[in-house]
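Bench notes, afternoon.
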Amino acid sequence: MNKRHNSRGWIHFALWSSLLMAFALLAPVLLVSKGHQQQAVPSPRGGKAAISITTEPADTPPYVRVYVTATRKVERVGLERYVRGVVAAEMPERFELEALKAQATAARTYIVRRLARGDVGGAVGGADVTDTVAHQAYVPLAKLAERPSDAIAKLNRAVNDTAGLVLTYQNKPIEATFFSTSNGYTENVEDYWNQKLPYLRSVSSPWDKKLSPRFMTTVRMEVNEFLRKLGVAVDTVPALKTAISNRDKGVGAADTLSTAIELLSVTKGKRIGEVQVGTHTFSGRQFREKLGLSSSAISWKMENGKIVLTTYGYGHGVGMSQYGAQGMALEGASAERILTYYYQGVKLTPVSQVLEKIDTAYAKR
């Protein structure tokens, strides 16, 4: 009797144990709600991927109206989904998570500052911004859905981990400018744009040279093309006029640029302050943009009758260097450390404190 009772008890115990083990295996699947995705998120150190549950960024106010150039339509998305689209367009997904988080915070700060000021400059079709670098590059929802699920999960995490945070200086959202690659230093804002901001100061950025494929670019131009782009008459630059004449005669041009192009000043960020070509003087920004160059950190020489221009870095150089952010993240820096390095004297602030009344206003649009 006791023997049979004990056998029956062991059978019940075995059955319950099997059921409990099955439930334990199924529980994580059952607990994942419809609005969640279970994705493999790459480790920040590039090691074995860890499994985490990453939600879609909230599609809630304030809303951002983005003019999508390809479709010529306006896409209306909540702030966090807009930020995800910007990060997807502006920074490679292979970058470290902390670099992506820094980019998300900078992108959020940019648009919140714009919304707070009611700034729609450069936008079209009743939008707040375009999806171009005139504002911030942006990947529309339909295009983003075509990306691998693990990439989307990583983007979601970068946005969600920083959700609702913006960079402020004296309680106001900053001008959170960023660019691809430095020449080893960032630029004081007044040396590129005609304004002075205490948080956009020149800092060293040594990581870019090693990491960025855009660190150095060389462009060769005919002398006539060089002068045409600058809007300089050849007669005002005798040395270059001689070079053109010699070239037309089949004579090799000597290095005449030392007298034709004179560097007048250098910025704190080791870029051109002012340069003189003949009787014309240009700022580093003007020189770069008129010639269509990658940076205003430029060297030049004459080679085989052509002007050879070598640039260092990629972009305006003001604010956060994206490859610099990646370099800092690879060394273990947090997103907050990256941001407070490239933007001096700022702090992270909840967006609710910056835009207390914007939710209601933008929810109706």
